[in-house]
Q: What sequence folds into this?
């Protein structure tokens, strides 16, 4: 898992690299600018495009000045480059001054002392190198006016490391910074890139390595982890010779109601396709025909047997909630299953029941996995004003209650009892359709049935779910939940590199 750093930790990593490689600060800036230019030139190959590079007085501005020089000297086809020096104070750091002195005379420079001066900017594309990642509050004064003026220009903006005014971590409230089409950031993505509020500041981001000391970065504390492809490949277990259906566990899915059998079918299908050896669906009698037709591989436990705890004890894992209903009967069912004192997977209507029954929430077995979407989460743990607050609450609740909380979003947060938050990078807007949560629950159940530890099952399931959707979205505008369920075994096979 890749450790994500705060802006303060990234500054320390810069200093550590400078001291131990060794490399000078100005040469590290040159390295960063070179990496930026490689990405930029691959993205923008119209070399007649007029470019405006806006440079602030610190290291971010020093990056911008180096980028301007490299675009002109190494890629001389970019002939229409103008540099705008944002000069709102008399203070400029040494790296800025050095790179300003290195600018070729062919590049036009304009000094900006008032935000209104940017009204005359004629470029088609703006490179934002004004302020870097050290901010901890919204912009004020001339910088706030400058950001507003840039946004009013309605030009495509490419930000160096972060858009000016963007907080790398913490609560984003009343964002008044620059709005970027693309951020090219250095070494690690900013933590806040994965929060929904980031859409106020950027459309997409790309990360480039600049040679900071990886061992040092991984040693930093903070608990923010980004799941990587190689992590998933190491965690997945290939099937072995002479294994059989008993090897891969028996999952019980307690789901569905008279009018919501689709949820039970989706969860059961996903559980099957993600590799559970045996699947039993605890459903109403009215859903028996639908299950037999759609998923003949699944067995059925009619709900009239649900209070027979000895019957439930034979299952490797129990997942409860998709399409279940929230009436008194299902409330009693959830209470009975919690009474088994075995880790559970709890989703959808079962989460809503927990909201009504705080006593049941307090009784959840250790290492149970909860999979709320935002509304379900806020019903359980209180209304939140930002996603940062929400994730911090999930982290706190996971630690205090010894639970795993999967807080679902485009970038899903897996909050562990250790206090670590694993951010999942897979998934896409094409998956924004009903039933996706039911499929995720089925995948988690399948992995738990196959004896994956709860935390591992949660991290793997979220990644596989999003990855299957990504593969499908390559050829589809929208992706359905049933398509994702059926894609899962193909995705696993690719990840395991099985021919």
A:
């Amino acid at each position: 898992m890749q450790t994500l750093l705060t802006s303060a930790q990234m500054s320390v990593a810069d200093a550590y690299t400078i001291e131990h490689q060794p490399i000078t600060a100005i040469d590290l800036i040159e390295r960063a600018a070179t990496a930026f230019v490689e990405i930029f030139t691959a993205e923008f190959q119209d070399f007649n495009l007029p470019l405006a590079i806006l440079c602030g007085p610190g290291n971010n501005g020093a990056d911008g000045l180096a980028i301007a020089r490299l675009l002109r000297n190494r890629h001389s086809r970019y002939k229409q480059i103008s540099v705008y020096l944002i000069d709102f104070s008399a203070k400029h750091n040494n790296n800025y001054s050095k790179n300003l002195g290195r600018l070729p005379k062919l590049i036009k420079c304009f000094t900006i002392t008032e935000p209104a001066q940017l009204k005359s900017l004629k470029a088609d594309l703006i490179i934002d190198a004004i302020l870097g990642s050290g901010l901890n509050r919204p912009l004020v004064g001339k910088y706030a006016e400058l950001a507003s003026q840039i946004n009013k220009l309605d030009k495509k903006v490419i930000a160096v490391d972060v858009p000016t005014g963007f907080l790398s971590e913490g609560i984003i409230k009343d964002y008044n910074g620059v709005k970027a089409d693309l951020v090219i950031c250095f070494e690690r993505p900013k933590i806040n890139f994965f929060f929904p509020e980031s859409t106020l500041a950027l459309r997409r981001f790309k990360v480039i390595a600049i040679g900071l000391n990886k061992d040092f970065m991984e040693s930093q504390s903070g608990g923010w982890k980004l799941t990587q492809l190689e992590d998933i490949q190491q965690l997945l277990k290939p099937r072995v010779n002479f294994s059989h259906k008993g090897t891969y566990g028996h999952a019980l899915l307690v789901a569905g109601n008279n009018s919501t059998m689709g949820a039970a079918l989706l969860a059961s299908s996903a559980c099957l396709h993600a590799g559970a050896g045996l699947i039993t669906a605890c459903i109403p009698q009215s859903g028996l025909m639908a299950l037999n037709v759609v998923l003949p591989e699944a067995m059925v436990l009619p709900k009239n047997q649900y209070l027979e705890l000895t019957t439930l004890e034979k299952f490797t894992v129990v997942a409860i909630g998709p399409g279940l209903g929230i009436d008194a009967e299902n409330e009693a069912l959830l209470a009975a299953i919690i009474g088994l004192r075995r880790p559970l997977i709890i989703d959808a209507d079962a989460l809503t029941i927990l909201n009504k029954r705080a006593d049941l929430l307090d009784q959840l077995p250790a290492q149970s996995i909860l999979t709320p979407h935002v509304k379900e989460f806020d019903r359980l743990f209180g209304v939140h004003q930002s996603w940062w607050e929400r994730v911090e609450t999930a982290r706190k609740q996971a630690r205090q209650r010894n639970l795993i909380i999967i807080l679902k979003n485009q970038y899903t947060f897996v909050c562990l009892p250790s206090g670590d938050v694993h951010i999942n990078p897979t998934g896409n807007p094409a998956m924004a359709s009903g039933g996706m949560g039911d499929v995720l629950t089925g995948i988690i159940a399948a992995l738990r049935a196959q004896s994956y530890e709860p935390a591992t099952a949660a991290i793997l399931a979220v990644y596989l779910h999003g990855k299957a959707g990504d593969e499908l979205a390559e050829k589809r505008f929208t992706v359905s939940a049933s398509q994702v369920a059926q894609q899962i075994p193909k995705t696993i096979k690719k990840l395991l590199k099985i021919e």
Observations:
- The longest strand covers residues 180-186.
